[in-house]
């Protein structure tokens, strides 16, 4: 499986918007996530103020390397390790995905065209699948 060329181009075109509004989007994302899916609150214990910044950085890095994902392998390893440490499970990904896309629409308004939302939906779940596979391996190592 790989991302479509159209998706890759659309994601790249959103890099300036993410640079400008990334933190606003991820801050909104956590509000949506905790309101709609309160059970996820328990997973986040440490430094809640830092989370939007960390996630905004990860999303920007993903967008910038969308056609060179090998560059992200160390970052993916760190994310997967953090997720396993905090008991993130595959069923949490659709909750975060829904919240990220909702936050993009809320913050960007009309600028979040259906093409942009579709591309980010595809890209989010593509990365989610990579993380879920890595986390599955780490969980089974832990036994
Ligand atoms: C594609 C989706 C996701 C991305 C890009 C992402 C990104 C990240 C990053 C960059 C970190 C910090 C890693 C480090 O410590 O170096 C992190 C940690 C974390 N993420 Fe995610 N994440 C995703 C999905 C999720 C999901 C679905 C959940 C569950 C609701 C989640 C919950 C957490 C938690 C609890 C931490 C640890 C926070 C702490 O240390 O207190 N993440 N994530």
Short description:
With 143 residues, this protein is mainly alpha-helical.
Provide the fold topology.
Layout (H helix, E strand, L loop, with lengths): L4 H9 L1 H22 L14 H14 L8 H13 L7 H16 L5 H29 L1
Helix pairs in contact: 1-6, 2-3, 2-5, 4-6, 5-6
The structure holds protoporphyrin IX containing FE.
DSSP, total strands: 0
- CATH topology, which one? Globin-like
How far is it from the N-terminal to the C-terminal residue, by CA?
29 Å
Taking all Cα atoms into account, the compactness measure Rg is 15 Å
The fourth-level CATH homologous superfamily is: Globins
Q: How many H/I helical runs?
A: 6
- Name the ligand types: protoporphyrin IX containing FE
pLDDT averaged over residues: 94
Q: Write down the oligomeric state.
A: single chain
Query: Beta-sheet strand percentage?
Result: under 5%
**Major pleated sheet:** none
CATH class term? Mainly Alpha
Number of domains: 1
Task: Kindly state the percentage of residues in helix.
Answer: over 70%
SS class: mainly alpha
Task: Describe what this molecule looks like in 3D.
The protein has 143 residues and is an all-alpha fold. It has a single domain (5-142), classed as Globins (Globin-like, Orthogonal Bundle). The chain is built from six helices and no strands. It has helices at residues 5-13, 15-36, 51-64, 73-85, 93-108, 114-142. The longest helix is centred in the last third of the chain and has 29 residues, at 114-142. The chain is globular and about 45 Å long. The two termini are 29 Å apart. The relative contact order is 0.17. The model has no long low-confidence stretch (mean pLDDT 94). Protoporphyrin IX containing FE binds next to α3, α4, α5 and α6.
């Amino acid at each position: 499986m790989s991302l479509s060329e159209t998706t890759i181009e659309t994601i790249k075109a959103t890099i300036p918007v993410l640079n400008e509004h990334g933190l606003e989007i991820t801050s909104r994302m956590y509000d949506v996530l905790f309101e709609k899916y309160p059970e996820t609150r328990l997973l986040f214990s440490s430094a809640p103020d830092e989370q939007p910044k960390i996630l905004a950085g990860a999303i920007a890095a993903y967008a910038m390397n969308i056609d060179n994902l090998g560059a992200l392998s160390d970052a993916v390893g760190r994310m997967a390790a953090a997720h396993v440490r905090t008991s993130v499970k595959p069923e949490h990904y659709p909750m975060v995905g829904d919240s990220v896309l909702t936050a993009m629409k809320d913050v960007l308004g009309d600028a979040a065209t259906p093409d942009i939302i579709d591309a980010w939906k595809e890209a989010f779940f593509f990365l989610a699948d990579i993380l879920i596979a890595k986390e599955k391996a780490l969980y089974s190592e832990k036994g």
